[in-house]
Amino acid sequence: MAFAPGRNEMTIEGVRQVFYVSGHGPVCVAHSGGPGIDSNYLQLTGLEDHFTLVRVDPVGTGESGRLADPAGYGMDTYVRFLTAVVDELGAGPVHVLGHSYGGCVAQRFALDHPDRVAGLILYDSTPVLGPELFSVAVEAAGAFPSRFPDQPEARAVADAFLNGSSTDDDTATARLQRMTPLYLADYFSRREEYDAMIEHMRYYQEPATAPDPTPFDMGSRLGEITAPTLILVGEHDFICGPQWARMLHDGIPGSDLVVFKDSGHLAHVEEPEAFVQAVTSMLQLNSAA
């Protein structure tokens, strides 16, 4: 691989694509969630002794460039840009770790380019996006204050998700930061630690609100995924929880499923040692394949 540790950039379709390289070992390309969230929250430092991590700022976020046409943000674009990064790395088949919406991108990438995938890690993701997923999340968000009756601000956290809106990157970021406690199994017990992460999270309005003309539903195609696959999910994830992980597990032949009992949507922060242990099992999974 020809890229140095730290920040790297390339140009894809005339747009700047930034990614960050660290660690050593087999290459693992990490795609963050959203859409519209950069990769800064997806710091996977515990994996650097096991993988060469390539953390991608999706187009429209972070230090990557912006599309001239905001309507261009969508699954096809993210998959094209991820494909170009993997090809540019010149590392042969790579591991691909996709978190949340990034896991949806990773599924499409694995289906479109099976020869480029050494292993697939679907982290708090789902095989389908649509009204059912959102209705489950809305119900869980509505129940959030009752889970923490001694925390008055729990209602404001839920309202940020249920009733919040934004008009630009700054207001989108403020809303994301207000509702992030929903994504954690117990924000209030580790508030200072989690606040240090939350203050660095940023949300980008154009990719976050761009309508994708193609519905995402991989349910009928999961059986076509041939790469060794690891599925990770937090037991308390309110938006891409165990029911969606089990759909992935049931649909992808030979996949492994790990449930983090004390995590929500961010197990790499909530249970970092267990997360590293689970992801490094991918190396053994590949050896046995």
Count of discrete alpha- or pi-helical segments spanning 4 or more residues:
10
Q: Describe the biggest sheet?
A: 8 strands, mixed
Helix/strand structural class: alpha/beta
Percentage of residues in strands: 15-25%
Tell me the quaternary state.
Answer: single chain
* Beta-strand segment tally: 8
Give your account of this protein's structure.
- This protein has about 290 residues and is of the alpha/beta class.
- It has 2 domains: about 5-130 and about 210-289, Rossmann fold (3-Layer(aba) Sandwich), CATH 3.40.50; about 130-210, no CATH class.
- About 35% of the residues lie in helices and about 15% in strands.
- Strands 1-2-4-3-5-6-7-8 form an 8-stranded mixed β-sheet, with helices on both faces.
- Helix 8 links the parallel strand 7 (about 230-235) and strand 8.
- It is globular, with a radius of gyration of 18 Å.
- The two termini are about 25 Å apart.
Gist of the model:
This protein is an alpha/beta fold and 289 residues long.
Q: Which labels suit this protein?
A:
globular; 289 residues; 8 strands; 2 domains; Rossmann fold; 8-stranded mixed beta sheet; single chain; 37% helix; alpha/beta
List the helices and strands and how they pair.
Blueprint: E1 6-12, E2 15-23, E3 27-31, E4 52-56, H1 75-89, E5 94-99, H2 101-112, E6 117-123, H3 131-147, H4 154-162, H5 169-179, H6 191-198, H7 205-209, E7 229-234, H8 242-251, E8 256-260, H9 267-270, H10 272-288
Parallel strand pairs: 3-4, 3-5, 5-6, 6-7, 7-8
Antiparallel strand pairs: 1-2, 2-4
Helix pairs in contact: 1-2, 3-4, 4-5
